């Protein structure tokens, strides 16, 4: 007599347990997993002297770091010394994308803090950065010669990240 | 005659414009703002949402379809940016569970009626 009711109760208990089990483990924040291993799209960036720079040209270098930064961004200031460290590594070139910034202030920033960028581009409207899956700055993407994204760092690069990048390059 | 002709052109252009606006709004309402708490790109005033709004508008002007725009953005940010994620093997339970519950519930009700547990006074 009571069997159908018991089935319903058991079923709902299992349902609630499974829902909680899966949803508690589910990260509700954006992560970089979806773009790792993907090839970067052909994007035309603008250099500081207003010449065009096609991102495909970085295939000339063994490894490239694409760093999104701005002079108004405090965490960018924090990570800058690490970018300068990385710029001294052989086989690694750094492409800077100045995000929604004033060119004059960006230049002043680099004069004061040092210029780690092999190529310096600008994205005054922030639209080009969407092609790289950027949603805030600083963000950094490590790309190999085949233009495959090896790693993406959200937030300022710290010493641990610098060592990890060195490790990937020296593999 | 000329007036009617110009009027027709204006009507045609405005319907095209409104159609684009509808698609634009529909897309923006189906995109998640990644830097906000549970807001759509359409609702959010964040910097990220403003840029995405401009990019979506540009893509529509370039002639991309709604699906192509979703594909472009999910390639960059994953399916997490879509409020209506596509049917994939890792989310099949999400899509099928309501139907399974419906069928299962129906079977239970059927069995209960058959056994006379409900429907009789």
3D architecture notes:
The complex is a heterodimer of chains A (171) and B (121). By secondary structure, chain A is α/β, with parallel strands linked by helices. Chain A has a single domain (30-169), classed as Glutaredoxin (3-Layer(aba) Sandwich), CATH 3.40.30. In chain A, 34% of the residues lie in helices and 23% in strands. Chain A contains 4 helices and 7 strands; from the N terminus they run αβββαβαβββα. Chain A has a 7-stranded mixed sheet, with helices on one face. The mean pLDDT of chain A is 90. Chain B has 2 domains: 2-86, Helicase, Ruva Protein, domain 3 (Orthogonal Bundle); 88-121. Chain B contains 4 helices and no strands. Chain B has helices spanning 2-29, 47-61, 66-77, 92-114. In chain B, α1 crosses α2. Chain B starts with a helix and ends in a 7-residue tail after the last helix. The A-B interface holds A 1, 4, 7-8, 11, 15, 30-31, 33-35, 38, 100, 125-127, 129-133, 135-136 and B 34-35, 47-48, 51-52, 54-55, 58, 74-81, 101, 104, 108, 111-112, 115, 117.
Number of helices of chain B: 4
**How many DSSP H or I helices of chain A?**
4
Tell me the overall shape of chain A.
Answer: elongated
CATH topology (fold) name of the largest domain in chain B: Helicase, Ruva Protein, domain 3
Cα gyration radius of chain A (Å): 22 Å
The major sheet of chain A is characterized as: 7 strands, mixed
Taking the sheet with the most strands of chain B, its summary is:
none
**Helix content percent band of chain A:** 25-40%
Low-confidence stretches of chain A: none
Question: Can you count the beta strands of chain B?
Answer: 0
Mean pLDDT of chain A: 90
Along the chain, the helix and strand elements of chain A come as HEEEHEHEEEH
Structural class of chain A: alpha/beta
Strand content of chain B: under 5%
Greatest chain-chain interface? A-B, 23 and 24 residues
Strands side by side in the biggest sheet of chain A? 2-1-5-4-3-6-7
Strand content of chain A: 15-25%
CATH class membership of the largest domain in chain B: Mainly Alpha
The count of domains of chain B is 2
């Amino acid at each position: 007599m009571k069997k159908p009711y018991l089935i319903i109760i058991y079923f709902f208990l299992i349902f609630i347990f499974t829902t909680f089990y899966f949803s508690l483990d589910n990260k509700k924040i954006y992560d970089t997993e979806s773009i790792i291993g993907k090839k970067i799209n052909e994007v035309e960036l603008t250099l500081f002297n207003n010449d065009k720079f096609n991102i495909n040209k970085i295939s000339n270098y063994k490894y490239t770091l694409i760093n999104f930064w701005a002079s108004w961004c405090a965490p960018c200031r924090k990570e800058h010394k690490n970018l300068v460290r990385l710029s001294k590594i052989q086989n690694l070139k750094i492409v800077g994308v100045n995000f929604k910034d004033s060119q004059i202030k960006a230049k002043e920033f680099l004069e004061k803090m040092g210029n780690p960028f092999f190529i310096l581009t600008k994205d005054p409207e922030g639209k080009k950065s969407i092609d790289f899956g950027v949603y805030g700055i600083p963000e950094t993407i490590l790309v190999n010669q085949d233009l495959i994204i090896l790693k993406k760092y959200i937030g300022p690069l710290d010493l641990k990240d610098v060592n990890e990048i060195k490790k990937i390059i020296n593999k | 005659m000329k007036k009617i002709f110009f009027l027709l052109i204006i009507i045609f252009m405005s319907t095209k414009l409104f159609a684009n606006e509808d698609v634009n709004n529909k897309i923006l309402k189906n995109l998640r703002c990644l830097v906000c708490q549970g807001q759509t790109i359409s609702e959010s005033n964040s910097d990220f949402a403003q840029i995405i709004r401009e990019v979506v508008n540009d893509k529509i002007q370039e002639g991309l379809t709604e699906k192509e725009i979703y594909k472009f953005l999910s390639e960059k940010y994953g399916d997490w940016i879509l409020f209506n994620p596509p049917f994939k093997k890792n989310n099949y339970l999400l899509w099928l569970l309501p139907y399974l519950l419906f069928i299962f519930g129906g079977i239970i009700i059927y069995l209960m009626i058959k056994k006379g547990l409900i429907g009789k006074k």
